[in-house]
Amino acid sequence: MIPQAWKENRPKIMRRVVFFFLILGFGVLQISGVLPDVFGLELLPLLALTVTVGMFERETYGMIFGLLAGVLCDMNNADGDGVYALFFALAGFTCGLLMTYLMMNNLLTATILTSFWSVLYALVSWLVSVGVHGISGGWKPLLTFYLPTALLNIIIMPIFYYLVRAIKKEFLNMENDELSF
């Protein structure tokens, strides 16, 4: 016997399971190094995915999925101190909150939010690498690696925006079909 809550919320639960495996899959790809380097820059699909999932799932699930993505990023970090888990959770929560109360969900706002969080991620990563790990070079790594990586992630963001939007629409159609019966 299937509980009534499962029957009523099945499309939502299935959509969130799909997002879970999507983040987990791209996290494994990002951590394992399977994704190609473009001109020596890293692809960070988890950041764009966190922003777009946060936009479509709103603040609570945006924060949960952001936390998952951040934990995956921290697993790749030698320290594993949780900085990226907090950062990604904050990004997912903030993007969801902005979509709920202030902004419209479209490609322009996704680009603005991804730009903001990518540059902030670059600054945090640079500060962690210089301040915590003691990597020398001053401003040079920020200007030659971290900020260009942020730009690359802004460029690839529309792929994730349209992917997450298609998943959301498909499950909304399933939900509407079930309600019509």
Outline the structure in words.
- The protein is mainly α and 181 residues long.
- It is 81% helix and 0% strand.
- The protein contains 5 helices and no strands.
- Helix 1 runs antiparallel to helix 5.
- The chain is elongated.
- The protein starts with a helix and ends with a helix.
- The model has no long low-confidence stretch (mean pLDDT 88).
Compose a concise summary of this entry.
This protein is mostly helical. It has helices spanning 4-32, 45-76, 83-101, 107-132, 140-180.
Element layout with pairings:
Elements: H1 4-32, H2 45-76, H3 83-101, H4 107-132, H5 140-180
Oligomer: single chain
**Globular, elongated, flat, extended or rod-shaped: what is the shape?**
elongated
Largest sheet: none
Catalogue the unreliable spans. Answer: none
Q: How many angstroms does the end-to-end distance come to?
A: 20 Å
Q: Key features?
A:
181 residues, mainly alpha, elongated
